[in-house]
Amino acid sequence: MTKPTQADARRNRDLLLAAAREAFAEQGTEASLREVARRAGVGIGTLYRHFPTRDALLEALLDSNFQHLRARAASLLAAPDLAPHEALSAWLAEMTTGARTYTGLPESIMAALADEGSALHESCAAMRASAGELLVRAQNTGRVRSDVTVYEVIALALGLAWAAQQPGGTSDLVDRLLSTAMHGLTVAG
Amino acid sequence: MTKPTQADARRNRDLLLAAAREAFAEQGTEASLREVARRAGVGIGTLYRHFPTRDALLEALLDSNFQHLRARAASLLAAPDLAPHEALSAWLAEMTTGARTYTGLPESIMAALADEGSALHESCAAMRASAGELLVRAQNTGRVRSDVTVYEVIALALGLAWAAQQPGGTSDLVDRLLSTAMHGLTVAG
DNA sequence: ACCTGAACACCGTTCAAGT
DNA sequence: ACCTGAACACCGTTCAAGT
């Protein structure tokens, strides 16, 4: 065996990400990291070298999702023909869809929001900021209750996403619950 | 050491329940069962003899809670001066309070509802039945949306209970979210 | 630099051996 | 009957030894 090159390292990183995507999809965000390393055909130490925590792995895996959510918020904020409360509603639908990518992800996100040390914190805080912009604008039109906080909206949405991914949940459950929740957030008019 | 008597067995059962209550309160429903046995001062085999599954232990621990919820539903259904949708709302508030007894309990309840083999299934199904009676009556008055199912109401309420017990959640969060959710379930009038 | 896997301290669960 | 704890097959995480 020759000394590992930088290209080997890069390749191992990619193998680990692919393996993690598979394992998390099958078993949720709490899937065994040993199992991930095994699937990647790599030693467990190599996994820890590339991703020192589970959240670091998750962050790398979800990067494009988070980017998409930020872009989507910007585009919804700029859409001229969309009522602000409907923009909020549309964004929340996409956010919960993303949060249901892996079983256990809503929990990881809630934890990362509260833990500044998490590798997932920055992305989640940015997500919360997007929700905040959409929420405030919708509240300013008077169509969305003014006493609701961003945290409540996020917790509500992730709570529904969580419920929908429990065993027994149907695929349309999130949409139905979210529609109910949005109705609860809006003011008659 | 003499042969263990029936009284010893009974005593061990009580020690295990007290230890489990403590451990679950501190660490949630996924607390180590070895830790529970250790706290009870009993061999791990003894825990498994008395409670063959984690859900069996949980069921014994929550028995009085479930009984209380059933009684409460009956009493709310019989209250003459209470609007049916308010009875539903009041019961859901108590249900979510119960579900927040231990971190992870909302998840255990959702799982038990879907798994007929769980030792917790019967109690949870009875809980769902209580919710169903209150819901149907409230729907018959026209004040609660008729297209909502019991499962959706339970999932919604447990989702909010789950969200409120994640790190970062405040103590009044459930009440606020539940009030929003109830508003979403009701029809203007 | 980067990779590996043994080592440590834990789990859940079972079951032969004890009284 | 009831209790015990060793045994088995797993974890997450670290770190000395290898290239």
TrEMBL record, chains A, B:
Keywords: DNA-binding, Transcription, Transcription regulation. This is Helix-turn-helix domain-containing protein. Residues 32-51 bind DNA. Gene3D superfamilies: Tetracycline Repressor, domain 2. Residues 10-69 form the HTH tetR-type domain. The lineage of its organism: Bacteria, Bacillati, Actinomycetota, Actinomycetes, Pseudonocardiales. InterPro entries: Homeodomain-like_sf, HTH-type_TetR-like_transc_reg, HTH_TetR, Tet_transcr_reg_TetR-rel_C_sf, TetR_SbtR-like_C. Pfam families: TetR_C_43, TetR_N. The keyword Transcription regulation applies.
